[in-house]
Amino acid sequence: MRALCPEHVSANKESIIGELVEGKECASQLKLLFQNPSGPHDTTPSAQQLVAKILTSFTQSISVLTSSEAGGEILEISCNDRRPDESGQSRKRSPPPAKDRRGCYKRRKAADTRTKISQTMEDEYEWRKYGQKKILNSKFPRSYFRCTRKHDQGCKAVKQVQRREENPEMFLTMYIGVHTCKDNLKAPEMVTDSGIWESYLAPTESNKASNDDQKASSSSTPNMKQEYPKVDTPLSEITDNSDPNLWPNLKDFELLEPLKMSDNLDFGVDQSVGFGTDHHLDFEY
DNA sequence: GCGATTTGACCTAG
DNA sequence: CTAGGTCAAATCGC
To answer: Residues annotated as region Disordered (predicted)?
Structure first.
């Protein structure tokens, strides 16, 4: 979709930049604070205050970005449709030979995709798992879900969920395609909802990793379906995605997480992921 | 018995 | 040829 109109983008961009600049300044102060912990405490904000401010900046930025999307569509920062023919129509290969065994299979790629990171693989949609795959160089398998309304209404939305290697409590969810179904709940937008911070610390007990990779993933699947209108939208980061290097990038970023957040602040750490990768904030219009 | 999930096979893009 | 996405038979759970 990348439907951001230029006017919106430029207006929002300024606002976002302002927020990010402020966040950056706070981060710089925080850095100084770490380098010189014995500095003047009465004149500089505490680490917690700075972290809170940084998070606020990110939140505001995300909020602006998200709200700029009409109709609650998920935000896409730096879209992926770099290729003109991403519709998949112009596949070089000849159509499947219509073998008897497996049906006409068409790999969907470069469709409308968004990525989010959250503490839970749940969201406000109903999904049905249709596959799981071990991914090369990844400790955890990737799970594949499609909209439960696929058969009813031909909804084409699918999502892929993978536990993050460096932080198994977090899930990287890639949404592919948009929901064309009517009643499978509201669109998967996030961040803009008020109260996201409160709702972010969603139950994660079910996410506790077990040692068995395969089990770990599948065992946390169950509530995928029953989970319902609950607006438990876990705070998350929506980013661009079609970049095949995205996930590794995210991983790399996580390695840079130096902060140990205090209890009331720990929600924000992974949110900054999207900003940590330099290519996420490049707007295309 | 039915619907959901698991899992290995199949299929395609790169 | 390989990695990853999808299918569908087998299995599970209610």
So the answer is: 79-115, 203-228
- The residue whose two tokens read 């990768």 is A277
Q: Which residues of chain A have pLDDT under 70?
A: 1-19, 37-44, 56-112, 182-285
The 3-state secondary structure of A52-120, one letter per residue: HHHHHHHHHHHHHHHHCCHHHCCCCCCCCCCCCCCCCCCCCCCCCCCCCCCCCCCCCCCCCEEEEEECC
Domain that holds residue A215: 6-80+109-276
A127 CA: nearest nucleotide by C1'? B4
Distance CA A149 to C1' C14 in A: 21
Decide if A97 is inside a domain: no
- Asked whether residue A104 is assigned to any structural domain, the reply reads no
pLDDT of residue A53: 76
For nucleic chain C, give residues with Cβ below 7 angstroms from it. A 101-103, 105-109, 130-131, 133, 135-137, 142, 144, 146, 158, 160, 176
Closest nucleotide to A247 by C1' from CA: C4
pLDDT at residue A117 in the model = 80
**Cα–Cα dist A49/A104, whole Å:** 56
Number of domains in chain A: 1
Residue A70 belongs to some domain of the structure: yes
C-alpha to C-alpha distance for A62 and A236, rounded to whole angstroms? 10
